[in-house]
Structures are given as C-alpha cells and as structure tokens.
C-alpha cells in the first residue's frame, strides 16, 4: 500500500486545455515584415507563439506575419531573438489557439514537445 504523504498531485497552470503546451512542428515557413520576406522553420508552436529557426536577423520594431503552408497569415510580434533563432508572440490569441487545437493533430510531424 502506497503512502499518500509522499505523493504530490500534478498541477497545471492556465485555464485552457492547450495553455502552455508546446508542440513540435518542423514546418517550413516564411516571415514577412514591411515587404521583406525571410525563410524560416517553425521548430515548435503553442497557442501563444512560436519558436523559429531563421536565416537572418528580424527587425524588432515592425509588425510580422508568419506564413505557414495551408494556413492563413498569423500576426505576431518579435518576443526574442538570438543567433539563428527567434521567438514570436501571436497577436490574435483566439485564432491562434484554434490553429493549434485544430491543426495540431492534422499536420505531419506535429507532436507534443
């Protein structure tokens, strides 16, 4: 018989079912900003944003659009960047949450991180 004194219950933060959940993607994509285009790869994605592998630095003060094949443009802002990587924060939370929940199980190579 197991002692309940040594067992901790798991807690989840947030209110939604996908809050904080990052999903591996490895999707080819394009980042657009003020007419400039940068090829990138979406390494992982959540309802709040994405982690990208980028070919060149991204201007931090311009509005961004993440373009993924078979998905409409996603408005975002640059959250952080370091050599070859960048983090985006999605601006349309409700639409992006639906994107992750609906497309998460449909995209090939898409799995929980």
Could you characterize what this model shows?
- The chain is mostly beta strands and 113 residues long.
- The chain has one domain: predicted glycosyltransferase like domains (Thrombin, subunit H, Beta Barrel).
- 10% of the residues lie in helices and 43% in strands.
- The protein has 1 helix and 7 strands; from the N terminus they run ββββββαβ.
- The protein has a 6-stranded antiparallel β-barrel with strand order 1-2-3-6-5-4.
- A hairpin with a 2-residue loop joins strand 5 and strand 6.
- The relative contact order is 0.22.
- The C terminus is likely disordered.
Which descriptors would you attach to this protein?
single chain; 113 residues; mainly beta; 6-stranded antiparallel β-barrel; 1 helix
Spans with pLDDT under 50 lasting ≥5 residues? 8-18, 95-113
Classify the secondary structure makeup into a structural class.
mainly beta
| Order of strands, widest sheet | 1-2-3-6-5-4
Mean pLDDT: 75
Query: Measured on Cα atoms, how large is the radius of gyration?
Result: 17 Å
Number of E-state strands? 7
The run of helices and strands is EEEEEEHE
Beta-strand percentage range: 35-45%
Number of domains: 1
Q: Mind telling me which CATH architecture this is?
A: Beta Barrel
Look at the structure and name the CATH superfamily: predicted glycosyltransferase like domains
N-end to C-end Cα span: 34 Å
What is the CATH fold-level name?
Thrombin, subunit H
Query: For the record, what CATH class applies?
Result: Mainly Beta
Counting DSSP H or I runs of 4 or more residues, the number of helices is: 1
Report the helical percentage: under 10%
Describe the global form.
Answer: globular
**Main beta-sheet strand count, sense and barrel state:** 6 strands, antiparallel, barrel
